[in-house]
């Protein structure tokens, strides 16, 4: 034991968004029972890389008696959770390949762009602006053809239900990826987004998120993914209120 700097998590402030999880290179923080928690003192280096991403300012650095930081324990822990070194640690991210054919039919890649542009037909009373399938970020292959040269829309799951004009206002002409930063695997999201940005020539990224604090995690994910990809891409953030109104629009890059 020694007196040293170590992270402190205020559970009252923490909303369980999970943005701090991928920000911690040692994997020392995990979401347990809906709150961010430090798994072990010897896994935390006390440098505070997790402070910046926290939208609730729930993480601080304190100086107290704690177990000494143990790099060997960190490496063992990272292997146990399948954690790969981050790109900024000078490890190149391998280019993922598309999944083989024969998987779940609901995950089969489909592009509707040519059909809609040529025929101009649609099902239902209002036209759908959707140009591809699937739409969930977890199901999208990094090398899907509709990512190349696309304007990417990253939408929080709740936004299309709340904002009535979602298709015309945001989805039209874009490739979409959807997810929830509170309920889904945030670390996997970050790795997937980083790879998508790195291996495709995206023209722009638009992030639509709800006004609730945990939903801002979508914005943090894009910021970190763009940073890790070493690319410069225009990023626009749009915050939607729970009553369906646009509260804020910000060009971030």
Give a summary of the structure in a few sentences.
Residues 5-34, 35-64 form the 4Fe-4S ferredoxin-type domain. By secondary structure, the protein is an alpha/beta fold.
Helix content: 10-25%
Whole-number mean pLDDT: 84
Q: What is the total domain count?
A: 2
Helix/strand class: alpha/beta
- How far the N terminus sits from the C terminus, by CA atoms, comes to 44 Å
The radius of gyration computed from the alpha-carbon positions, rounded to a whole number of angstroms, is 20 Å
Low-pLDDT windows of residues: 86-103, 115-120
Q: Biggest β-sheet, characterized?
A: 5 strands, mixed
Number of helical stretches of at least 4 residues:
7
Tally of DSSP β-strands? 11
In spatial order, strands of the major sheet run: 8-7-9-10-11
Which CATH architecture of the largest domain is right? 3-Layer(aba) Sandwich
The global form is elongated
In CATH, the topology of the largest domain is named: Rossmann fold
Which percent band covers the strand fraction? 15-25%
Q: What pattern of helices and strands is seen along the backbone? A: EHEEEHEHEEHHEHEHEE
What CATH first level of the largest domain would be assigned? Alpha Beta
Describe the model.
This protein is α/β, with parallel strands linked by helices and 253 residues long. The chain folds into 2 domains: 83 residues, Alpha-Beta Plaits (2-Layer Sandwich), CATH 3.30.70; 132 residues, Rossmann fold (3-Layer(aba) Sandwich). It has 7 helices and 11 strands. Helix 7 links the parallel strand 9 and strand 10. Helix 6 packs across helix 7. It starts with a strand and ends with a strand. The relative contact order is 0.14. About 9% of the residues have low confidence. This is Ferredoxin. Pfam families: Fer4_6.
């Amino acid at each position: 034991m020694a007196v040293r700097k170590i992270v402190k998590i205020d559970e009252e402030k923490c909303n369980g968004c999970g943005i701090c999880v991928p920000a911690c290179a040692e994997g020392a923080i995990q979401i347990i029972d809906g709150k961010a928690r430090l798994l072990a003192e010897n896994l935390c280096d006390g440098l505070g890389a997790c402070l910046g991403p926290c939208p609730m300012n729930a993480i601080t650095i304190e100086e107290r008696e704690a177990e000494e930081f143990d790099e060997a324990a960190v490496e063992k822990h990272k292997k146990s959770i399948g954690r790969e070194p981050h790109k900024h640690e000078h490890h190149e991210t391998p280019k993922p390949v598309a999944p083989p054919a024969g998987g779940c039919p609901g995950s089969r890649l489909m592009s509707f762009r040519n059909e809609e542009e040529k025929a101009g037909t649609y099902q239902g009373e209002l036209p759908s602006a959707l140009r591809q399938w699937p739409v969930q970020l977890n199901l999208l292959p990094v090398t899907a053809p509709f990512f190349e040269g696309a304007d990417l829309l990253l939408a929080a799951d709740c936004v299309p239900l709340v904002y009535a004009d979602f298709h015309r206002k945001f989805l039209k002409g874009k490739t979409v990826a959807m997810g929830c930063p509170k309920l889904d695997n945030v670390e996997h999201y970050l790795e997937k987004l980083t790879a998508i940005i790195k291996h495709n020539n995206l023209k722009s990224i638009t992030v639509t998120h709800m006004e609730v604090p945990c939903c801002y995690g979508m914005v943090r994910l894009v910021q970190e993914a763009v940073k890790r990809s070493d690319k410069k891409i225009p990023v626009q953030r749009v915050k939607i209120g729970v009553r369906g109104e646009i509260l804020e629009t910000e060009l971030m890059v």
